[in-house]
Amino acid sequence: MAESNNQEVYRASTYAPVNIAVIKYWGKRNTTLNLPTNSSLSVTLSQDDLRTHTTASCSSSFTDDTLSLNGSPQDIAGARTQACLRELRQLRKDVEAQDPQAPKLASMKLQIVSENNFPTAAGLASSAAGFAALVRAVADLYHLPASPTDLSRIARQGSGSACRSLMGGYVAWEKGKQDDGSDSLACEVAPANHWPEMRALVLVASAEKKDVSSTAGMQQTVATSTLFEHRAKEVVPKRMRAMEKAIHDRDFAAFATLTMKDSNNFHACNLDTDPPIFYMNDVSRSAVRMCEAINFSHDKLVCAYTFDAGPNAVIYYLDEHENEVAGTFKGLVGGVKGWEGKRGQAVKDGAKLPEGTE
Ligand code: DP6
């Protein structure tokens, strides 16, 4: 809280990490509320590496709501951001109604300033960290008595995957059954310290903005892919339960099999979309081959790849295989500063797999 004059500025800052799904969300049954066609499950990466930092301020001296990202003004009037702010302001009004002494923050204009420390909109879950940080920063500013699961209902309306970035560890987003989305929430499957040996290596094949946004791509898939219907109805429900079991049992072989299968099934649905959507490229495929070669040479699964709506790879592995997995990829990308990995350690901008690596 801040300066003491009659136009006091109230302020709160927070970080939110990126999460990378191992069972992918793709498809909405309600585009306004961001209600998904299927449940999904993700691992939250270390926020030392890939994260959004957001500061939210409000004051009666501010004349407009404003939002900036990496120093550039953003459109705060978009329906998704407005949905989040409307919900947060309503909860603040409830607080103010309960406590007449509470400062009247809900009616003040907001300034929201965000910084990503990774490429925005390049398929690295930037909207997930972005909306999670925005919602948490404003919730902290407003001193809302809301749990991460309560906030996940709000962040989901900003970007579906954002609801999973409000928790650490292993997080499920249950699709829910209600039309109003009240049961479409994120919940913890296991905390990070349940399986602290898990590592994720992010390989940036391209930091360019992706061709087809997730929102547009998934709607096109829902509208045109028959494979997707099978995925949503048959494949994902069974896989969700199997993945939860793999995590509870700390069974890396099962975790890796499900992760790779689900990534491939998700990209197959994109290929089955009309017109087809290609998120993976030759560089992505070289990471798949590399993973396969590492697993083959160990005669067991020691690493698993997954790709979101872009060409960048995320490789999951256990700390005991740091040298074999991260070391091998490090050999490929060669002398990249900051590569040595703990969970979520990222290869930052500019680090590329060589083209055509097999
Ligand atoms: C491939 O959450 O970015 O990363 O809800 O339209 O904002 P919107 O989509 P978004 O989609 C993420 C899709 C994914 C899979 C996942 O994170 O589960």
Description:
- Its EC number is 4.1.1.33.
- It is an enzyme of class 4 (lyase).
- This is Diphosphomevalonate decarboxylase.
- It comes from Vermiconidia calcicola.
- Keywords: Lyase.
- The protein is of the alpha+beta class and 358 residues long.
- The protein is built from 8 helices and 14 strands.
- The protein has helices at 79-98, 126-141, 148-158, 214-224, 226-248, 252-271, 282-298, 322-333; strands at residues 9-17, 19-23, 28-30, 35-36, 40-44, 51-59, 66-69, 72-74, 109-116, 170-173, 186-190, 198-203, 303-307, 313-318.
- The strands form 4 sheets. It has a 5-stranded mixed sheet with strand order 1-6-9-7-8.
- α1 packs antiparallel against α3 (148-158) and α2 (126-141) crosses α3.
- The chain is globular.
- The chain starts with 8 loop residues before the first strand and ends in a 25-residue tail after the last helix.
- The model is unreliable at 334-358 (pLDDT under 50).
- Ligand DP6 binds next to α2 and α4.
List keywords for this structure.
lyase, disordered C terminus, 358 residues, 36% helix, 21% strand, EC 4.1.1.33, alpha+beta, binds ligand DP6, 4-stranded antiparallel beta sheet, Diphosphomevalonate decarboxylase
